[in-house]
Every structure is written in structure tokens, then in C-alpha cells.
Amino acid sequence: MDNKPDSNNSSDSSGSPPPSPPPSVGGNSIIIQGSVGPGANVGSGSVRSDQIAGHDLINIGATGGEEQQHFADKMRELRDLITEARSAGELDAKLADEALANLDEVAQALTTEAKPEKKRLLSKLAYIGDILDTAADLLEASGGATRVLVRAVPIAALLIKIASRIF
């Protein structure tokens, strides 16, 4: 681990000396040359923030109401697509009912429990994704068209990703 290059060279590649530090109130200045990513830690300590922004860079790490609203919207969209896939004959009625029942269980847990169990939510969403993905694969293998399921599978995967972040 000792063979890492020094990222804070005392002079840049042109050979000019580093700029003098600006006057500061506390007398504590750190000069950084080169690229430093958002939320990078230079020196001792740590960086913790819900939102880090600078110039044209905005990195939002907060899990606020917008992401939960996006999750709810995608849950409704997935419900509509499952119903549409059943109507279009792309998804067997029994499998559609099972996927919708699992989706209802996720919605019920989110509305009734203060802090729903993340593992249970993710497993239910993964099961829905598996049902849709398997149905799409079987339909394609038999020569059928998957116009609705091809839109539903990525939404199920997106719900898993969002749920793993916000719950």
C-alpha cells in the first residue's frame, strides 16, 4: 500500500511553485492541486453530507420525499403493466395474480409499518421481477411478442434498486 503516487505534489507538471494559500480566518488552509471528486476527504476527518454541490456538479445523496414518491409512482406503473400484460395474454392469470399479491404486500408493509423490513421488501420485489422475467423469456422462446413485459421487467429491477437505497 506504500507504492501509491503522491496526489498532492508540491509543484505541478509545469514546474511552477504552488500558489500561496489565501488568508483565512482560522489560519487553517489546505491547497489541493489536481482532480478531487465530490465528497472527497483531504487531510484528517470525514465528509458527511446529504447534498454536495459545486459549480456544475450536483451530487444529491439524500433520500427524501422525491425518491419515495418516485418509488410509489413506479409501483403504480408496474401494477398497471402487470394488469395490461395479463389482458394482452403475455402473462398467465395465475402468475399475474401472484405478482400483484406480492406487490400488494409490499404496498401494505410500506403503509402500515413505521420501518418495514428491508430484506422482506427486497425479496418480494425480486420475486415479482423473477416472475415477469421468466414469463418474458418463455413467451419469447415460444415465438410470442413481449410488448408489455419488456417494459415491466426493467421497472421491477428499478424498484429493487430504489428500495435498497431508501429502506
Topology:
Layout: E1 51-54, E2 57-60, H1 65-87, H2 93-112, H3 118-141, H4 149-166
Antiparallel strand pairs: 1-2
Task: Please give a handful of descriptors for the protein shown.
51% helix, mainly alpha, 4 helices, single chain, 167 residues, two-stranded antiparallel ribbon, elongated
**Strand line-up of the largest beta sheet:** 1-2
- Spans of 5+ residues with little confidence (pLDDT < 50)? none
Query: What share of residues is helical?
Result: 40-55%
Count of alpha and pi helical runs? 4
- The chain-level mean pLDDT equals 78
Helix and strand content put the structural class at: mainly alpha
Radius of gyration: 25 Å
Q: List SSEs in N-to-C order.
A: EEHHHH
Largest sheet: 2 strands, antiparallel
> What proportion strand?
under 5%
Span between termini: 36 Å
Q: Tell me the number of strands.
A: 2
The 3D shape can be described as: elongated
Q: In summary, what is this structure?
A:
The chain has helices at 65-87, 93-112, 118-141, 149-166, and strands at 51-54, 57-60. The chain has four helices and two strands; from the N terminus they run E-E-H-H-H-H.
Q: Would you mind describing this structure in some detail?
A:
With 167 residues, the protein is mainly α. It has a domain at 65-166. The chain is built from four helices and two strands. The chain has helices spanning 65-87, 93-112, 118-141, 149-166; strands at 51-54, 57-60. It has a two-stranded antiparallel sheet. Helix 2 runs antiparallel to helix 3 (118-141). The longest helix has 24 residues, at 118-141. The relative contact order is 0.11. The model has no long low-confidence stretch (mean pLDDT 78).
